[in-house]
Design a protein that fits this description.
Blueprint: H1 4-11, E1 16-17, H2 20-26, E2 32-37, H3 46-60, E3 64-69, H4 91-108, E4 117-120, H5 122-125, H6 130-136, H7 143-148, H8 150-156, H9 162-165, H10 167-182, E5 184-190, H11 194-208, E6 213-217, E7 230-231, E8 234-235, H12 245-253, H13 260-267, H14 272-278, H15 287-302, H16 304-318, E9 329-332, H17 334-338, E10 341-342, H18 343-349, H19 356-364, E11 368-370, E12 373-374, E13 381-382, E14 391-396, E15 400-406
Parallel strand pairs: 2-3, 2-5, 3-4, 5-6, 9-15
Antiparallel strand pairs: 1-6, 7-8, 10-13, 11-12, 11-14, 14-15
Helix pairs in contact: 10-11, 12-15, 12-16, 13-15, 15-16, 18-19
């Protein structure tokens, strides 16, 4: 069987690794690996999806993934990449977020019969005896080395709480706990976690004389420099309640040409030969590769049926074939249109703009459309006379559509 390390490297998942030769040798046999997830939100987003896909590849090649949801560390908050202390969540909010995240993770991996494990680090962190923990674990950490870590060094300028300073120790202890109880020898995560993961590798060596490995993924940005999974409207969520499957599909189909091959390798399970063949096309022909990317990514996250609906809706809109039910919709009563609704208010109300001021700017710049006709004035009133076939079709820019169903 192909070594999964080679698969991850060729697909663009590997940024840093603590011992490339040693890890590759270890992966010749089934191992247990893990990634930890912060329970600060009820849904993962496209940035998290890279890490989830790495675990999917590990499982497909015979290894056992552990997904650790941070019910314990989430009560502190990871200072990595943050200029100020995170808002502390209540235990109840953390638990609600964990339950939602568990459901999402189960879409991508098979947790049956121990093929993958889902654990909550609150189970072993919350019962810790503080003094015993300091004696047994804290003695292995150098404060000088911790302060040299980028996450802490950046925060020293704005203020680092003692609470946050403990985060690296607790994350390292997670790795040690999983090593002791589950034979886990590999922790993976984003490259901003490099220092934290190495601390776990070192703790396993000091406390157990054991060998473990660290692997980090690149922090992805688009070709234009935008952070992966971020748009003008906000994060690209995996939860259909936060972002419709159609909206998710549209995010991928609007991928910049320069990013298509890279994202096909990371966010789909298509064979590399097929990906390379798809991406040989240039110019307008690259649309086919973007459609495959959008369909495959949506299928993995929302299922075959929703991916088909989203593709049909996209083809209909952009091919002039009409409006599908999969297009994001809002229903308003016909009585509201009787006296008319300012067009800027309508754009803001359905979420195509965040504020009415933003809607007015969009109109003034010529980027607002009603029923595929450019909105000419910020003072335009939308009335029953604008309704066609029972709905209004709004568009912001070239590709963001919203259907207003009039009941």
């Amino acid at each position: 069987m192909v070594n999964v390390y080679d698969v991850l490297k060729e697909r663009g998942f590997v940024e840093q690794v603590s011992d490339e030769q040693g890890l590759r040798a270890a992966l010749e046999h089934p191992i247990t690996c893990y990634i930890g997830y912060d329970p600060s939100a009820s849904s993962f987003h496209v940035g998290n999806l890279l890490t989830i896909m790495a675990l999917v590849h590990m499982q497909r090649h015979g290894h056992r993934p552990i997904t650790v949801v941070g019910g314990g560390t989430g009560m502190i908050g990871d200072p990595s990449g943050k200029t100020e202390m995170r808002q502390l969540l209540t235990p109840e909010k953390i638990q609600a977020n964990l339950e939602a995240q568990k459901k999402q993770l189960a879409r991508y991996m098979d947790y049956s019969e121990g093929k993958a494990l889902m654990l909550n680090n609150a189970d072993w962190l919350l019962p810790l005896n503080y003094i015993s923990f300091l004696r047994d674990i804290g003695r292995h950490f150098s404060v000088n080395r911790m302060l040299a870590a980028e996450a802490y060094r950046l925060r020293l300028e704005t203020g680092l709480s003692f609470l946050e300073f403990n985060y690296q120790v607790l994350q390292a202890y997670d790795f040690l706990y999983l090593y002791r109880h589950y034979g886990c020898i590999l922790q993976m995560g984003g490259n901003d976690q490099w220092g934290n993961i190495l601390a776990g590798v070192e703790l396993i060596r000091r406390a157990e004389g054991g060998e473990a490995f660290a692997l980090t993924f690149p922090l992805l940005t688009t070709a234009s420099g935008a952070k992966m999974g971020k748009t003008a409207e906000g994060a690209v969520w995996l939860d259909a309640e936060r972002l419709s499957p159609y909206g998710f599909y549209q995010y991928w189909i609007n991928t910049e040409d320069a990013d298509v091959e890279r994202f096909l390798k990371i966010y789909t399970l298509l064979p590399l030969d097929e990906i390379r063949e798809l991406c040989q096309a240039k110019g307008a022909d690259i649309r086919r590769a973007k459609e495959v990317l959008a369909f495959e990514a949506t299928r993995l996250t929302h299922g075959e049926v929703e991916a088909e609906r989203a593709r049909e809706a996209s083809r209909s809109l952009f091919g002039g074939g009409g409006v599908s039910d999969a297009v994001p919709s809002t229903t308003i009563p016909a009585t509201e249109l009787a006296s008319g609704i300012p067009v800027a208010e309508l754009f803001q109300r359905v979420g195509l703009t965040k504020t009415r001021s933003e809607a007015r700017r969009l109109i003034q710049q010529g980027g607002a459309y009603l029923n595929e006709r450019q909105v000419a004035s910020v003072d335009q009133i939308v009335s029953q006379a604008d309704v066609q076939n029972g709905f209004l079709l709004l568009r912001a820019g070239k590709k963001r559509y919203h259907r207003v169903v009039v009941s």
